[in-house]
Amino acid sequence: MDWSDLQNFWQQIRRKKTGPTWPPGKALEYLIMRGFELEGAKVVYPFEVHKQREVIEQIDGLIFWENFVALVECKDVRSAINFDPIAKLRNRLLNRPSQVIGCFFSMAGYTEPAKILAEHLAPQTILLWEQYDIDFSLKNRYFCRGLEKKYQECVMSGRPDFNLIELLTDE
After folding, report:
1. How would you classify the pairing of strands 54-59 and 47-51?
2. Dist CA 101 CA 19 (whole Å)
3. Is residue 171's pLDDT more than 90?
4. CA 152, 154, 159, 165 torsion: positive or negative?
5. In this model, does residue 169 exceed pLDDT 90?
6. Cis ω before 123 (30° cut-off from 0)
7. DSSP state of 50
8. Which of 11, 83, 88, 164 might form a disulfide with 114, Cβ 3.0–4.6 angstroms?
9. CB neighbours of 124 closer than 8 A, spacing ≥ 6?
10. Cα–Cα distances in Å, from 136 out to 58, 106, 109, 142?
11. Which residues contact 101 (CB under 8 A, 6 or more apart)?
């Protein structure tokens, strides 16, 4: 899919109208990874990690862009994400080199406790992306630069949930 196709696909995802071709959640995973790929990142689409023939992790994707390496988690659910899935991603990061960060994409946002607790995950960094961040990134072809901006804001303010729409008021 190109940028135009992704825009149309995004509307289908938002309306929950991706049809039988896309199992639940897989459409969002593809859209996110393809957006980063179109912007120039090297990506690894969803994969499983095996140990002794057993699946021990299901990874929604990996992003390699400039000096960033990010482990991706996507949730296309109707209710706000609580802290448990974020903690699960943090545990996956503990198994990887310290420079790897997490990017958590949620269609329904995050509970307030999840946002507060996400601020205290050091040394792991997990950047929280919401529907409006995805929308902004699609419209402005801003996935990789959005990753960089969210990371910079997290370093400066400790906020892992910087809203990319705030860029419109800053510039």
Report:
1. antiparallel
2. 32
3. no
4. positive
5. no
6. yes
7. E
8. 83
9. 90, 93, 94, 101, 102
10. 27, 14, 15, 7
11. 68, 69, 70, 71, 93, 124, 125, 126, 127, 151
Q: Please count the other Cβ atoms lying within 10 Å of the Cβ belonging to residue 72.
A: 23
Judged against a pLDDT cut of 70, whether residue 140 lies above it is answered with yes
Binned at pLDDT 50, 70 and 90, residue 37 comes out as very high
Kind plus residue range of the DSSP H or E element containing 132: helix 131-140
Provide the pLDDT for residue 5.
Answer: 95
Which sequence spans correspond to the domains of the chain? 3-170
Identify the residue whose tokens are 């400039």.
Answer: 66
Which strands form 42-44's sheet, in the order they lie side by side? 42-44, 61-65, 68-75, 101-106, 126-129
> 3-19 as b/e, with b when 16 or more CB fall inside 10 Å?
eeebeebbeebeeeebe
H or E stretch at 167: helix 166-170
- CATH class held by domain 3-170: alpha beta
